[in-house]
TrEMBL record:
One of its GO terms (molecular function) is nucleotidyltransferase activity. Pfam families: AadA_C (PF13427). It comes from Streptomyces chilikensis. This is Aminoglycoside adenylyltransferase domain-containing protein. InterPro entries: AadA_C (IPR025184), NT_sf (IPR043519).
Length: 257
């Protein structure tokens, strides 16, 4: 068992077999990272993966991967619409010198792959190195080098002033989901800034309730308690929660200095 969900395990197994056939002798390994690797994945999570190959997929190989991911969300089931991950080359995946290299990326809920750096971050590498689940191939420690705490902290410090604008660029603050996501993201970034490690969403909120100014406790508790509401386009933020979120954003961004 890779995850708590039989349907998701079956999908991951099928994805790994299909990708292995497409990549042929360039295939190195397939791994789960993100919330499921951190032991906190649930029905409201996406499932993050990284496939490592000796070279980036191009030409017919890239086209075959695009056809594969174009069809997966059309299959029956819940998890077929909740995969997210990248196809990386081992050279740029190995160490932090590869940061900034675009990988072929499957965005959560999308059918079209793009070239993006979304999964190519110190944050994702830290999870993969310390908690990655091997679907196929060598242990992840043979594929990804250790990520220094200073690199995780530096990335978090740089991200703090950009969190709100980044979320605004793709999500609507008319939704309760966005309010919760924003608060959780700030907690995760602050956790990484303080510790040089990466926490799951529930773990970061729990850490925030214990370590941040106590006055934020009600907001963090609300976000944690409302996770079960999931993503609902007809669900507006709770009264006052958006104002509290903006205030929390200002508080969190002050730590960037």
């Amino acid at each position: 068992m890779f995850t708590p969900y039989e349907e998701l395990d079956a999908l991951l197994g099928d994805l790994t077999r299909s990708v292995r056939d497409i990549l042929g002798d360039t295939f190195v390994g397939a791994y789960v990272q993100g919330s499921f690797a951190l032991g906190a994945g649930d029905r409201h999570s996406d499932c993050d993966f990284v496939v490592a190959a000796t070279r980036l997929p191009r030409g017919g190989t890239e086209a075959a991967l695009r056809r594969l991911h174009d069809g997966i969300p059309l299959r029956p089931g819940h998890w077929t619409r909740h995969l997210e991950g990248s196809y990386a080359d081992t050279a740029s995946l190995r160490d932090l010198g590869g940061l900034g290299t675009p990988w072929l990326f499957n965005d959560h809920g999308h059918r079209e792959l793009t070239w993006d750096t979304h999964c190519n971050s110190a944050h994702s590498r830290w999870i993969l190195r310390h908690h990655g689940i091997t679907l196929a191939g060598p242990p992840v420690t043979e594929v990804v080098d250790e990520v220094p705490p200073e690199a995780v902290r530096a990335e978090a410090r740089a991200a703090l002033p950009e969190v709100l604008d980044s979320v605004r660029s793709w999500a609507s603050f008319d939704l309760a989901w966005t309010q919760r996501y924003t608060v959780t993201t700030y907690c995760r970034v602050l956790y990484s800034l303080r510790t040089g490690r990466v926490a799951s969403k529930p773990g970061a909120l729990a850490w925030g309730r214990e370590h941040l100014t106590p006055g934020w406790g009600p907001l963090l508790t609300q976000v944690s308690a409302d996770r079960g509401r999931g993503w609902d386009p007809a669900d507006p933020p709770r009264p006052g929660s958006l104002e509290a979120t903006y205030a929390f954003a200002s508080y969190a961004e002050s730590f960037a200095a």
